[in-house]
Amino acid sequence: MRALKQPADENPDNEHSQHFDYDVAKFMLQLTSILYERENDSIRKAVHVLANTRPLSYAPIIGGAAQNIVSNSFQERLIPGDLVRSRFGAEKADEVRKMLDSRGDMLIKDWCMRFGIEFEVVSELNDTASTFAGLFWDPRSNWIMVACKGATPAEFGEWLSTFDPVLVESGDHSTGFKFHKGSRERVFPSEPCDLGHITPYDSISLGVKTLAKHLRRTNGLPQGAKINVWFTGHSFGCATASLVYSKFLTSPEDMGKNAELRDVYLFGAPAISDTKYVQVFNQKMLEDPKCQRAMWRITSNGDAVAVCFPKARDWPLHFSYSNVAFVHLGTEVKLRDYPLKCVIVENRTVCVSSHFTTEQIAAQRSDRYTQQGEERRELVGMLLQRIPIFGRLFAPCAMYYWDQLNRVSLGQCEQIVG
Fold it and tell me: Mind listing the pLDDT tens digit of every residue in the chain (418 residues)?
C-alpha cells in the first residue's frame, strides 16, 4: 500500500489541513479484526511451560526503554520472532511455538500470506487473557504496523479491569500525568516482572526496534531512509495502542534510529488520560513540521466504548482534578452515511481521501451484496444500532465499523468545534 511506505517528509499535511486516508483505515480495520481469531487457551499453555523455566539471560533491574533492558550484543543477535529462543533456548522456543500455532494463529498467518505480509505477536500485555499486541509488516517494504487487540465478550475479568473508572499515576509512561488504571497496567504494570522488570512496553519497543533494523538491512534502504511505524487498535485495544504510541511520541529513541513514527487509526477508542496530558500530547504531535502526524479516533453510531466512558474534555465543564476526569486523545472522525459528510470534531480542515471514487466504493459494496445473506446481515446490524440506548452496545462491533466505512462519503469533512 503506497500510503504506508510514503516517507514522512513527503506528507503534504500541515497543522491546519490533513488527509484521512480511507484506504489505510480499511486496511487497518482488517488487521485489528483478524486478531480476534487468536485463541487464549494456547497462550495459557505456553505461559505454563515457561513458568518454571529459568531464562538464559536476565535483564537488569532498571526502568526505561528496550535499549536499556538488554545489551547491544544481545540486540544484534535478534531477528523478528526470535526473543523466546534468545532467552529460553531453542528447545523451549520450539515447544512454545508449537503451542502458539493454534487454529486462530494459523488463520491470521494464512490471511497475511494472501496479502504478502507477515505477522508476529510481540507482547501478551501482562495477562494470559486474549488481549495482545502484534506486529504486521511487508518484508519487501519499509513499514511496520503495531496492532493491539481488545477484550472479547466472554472474558469477564478483562471487562472489569477495563471499566475500572479510576485515573492513576502514569508510572513509567511519563511524570506528572494520570491514565486509566486498567489500560496502564496492561502496558506499564505497577508490579515488576520476575524476568528482570521487562514490561509489555519494553517488549513492544524491542520488537519494533529489532524489526526496523531487520527491514533496513534486508531491503538495502538508502542512508537516512527510515521504517514507518503505524499503529491501530479496535475498542479497548485502542487504549493500549494510544499508550504505546504516545510514549513513542515523547521518547522516539525507544524505537531506535531506524524507525519513524507515523499515524494511528483507532476504531472506537475509549478516553484514557487526564486533562493535563492531552495538552502535552497535542503540542508534541505538531512539534515536527517535517513529519505531521495524526491520531484518528474513528467513531460510529454512538459506540458505547467511545462515547459513554467517563470523560471530561467533551463536556462544557472540565473537572481537571477529578480521578474520573477522563480525556480522549486524538482527533475524532464521526462516520456517517453517504451523502452526508463525515464529521471532524476539531478546528482544522480534514479531507477523506481514497484512490477510489465514491461511485467505485458504492459499486464495491454492491458486489459484496451478491454474497448470500450479506445485505440482510448489514441491514440487521443497522437496525440493531438504532435501538435507543441498547444500540450503542452493538455499535462497537468491528463488523459494523466495516459496514459503516463502506457507506461513507469522500471529500472534505464537516467541522464541529467544541
Answer: 788 988 888 888 887 889 999 999 999 999 999 998 877 666 666 666 666 666 655 443 333 434 443 444 444 444 555 556 666 677 777 776 666 666 778 889 899 999 999 998 887 655 655 568 899 999 999 999 999 988 776 666 666 666 666 777 766 666 667 787 778 888 888 775 554 567 888 889 989 999 999 999 999 888 889 999 999 999 888 989 999 999 999 999 999 999 999 999 999 998 888 888 888 898 899 888 788 899 999 999 888 888 875 554 444 444 455 556 678 899 999 999 999 999 998 888 999 999 999 889 989 988 988 888 999 999 999 999 999 888 888 898 999 999 999 999 999 999 886 5
CATH number for position 319:
3.40.50.1820
Q: Which helix (H) or strand (E) holds 169?
A: strand 167-169
Full residue range of the structural domain in which residue 136 is found: 2-415
Number of domains in the chain: 1
Whether 334 contacts 413, CB under 8 Å: no
Cis preceding-peptide flag for 339 (omega within 30 of 0)? yes
Q: Which residue has the cell 478483562?
A: 158
Residues with Cβ within 8 Å of residue 93, at least 6 apart in sequence = 84, 85
Give the integer Cα–Cα distance in Å for 172 and 244: 11
Q: Which three cell numbers stand for residue 341?
A: 459528510
Could you tell me the end-to-end alpha-carbon distance of the chain, in angstroms, rounded to an integer? 35
- The per-residue DSSP string of 22-64 comes to HHHHHHHHHHHHHGGG--SHHHHHHHHHHHT---SSPPPS--S
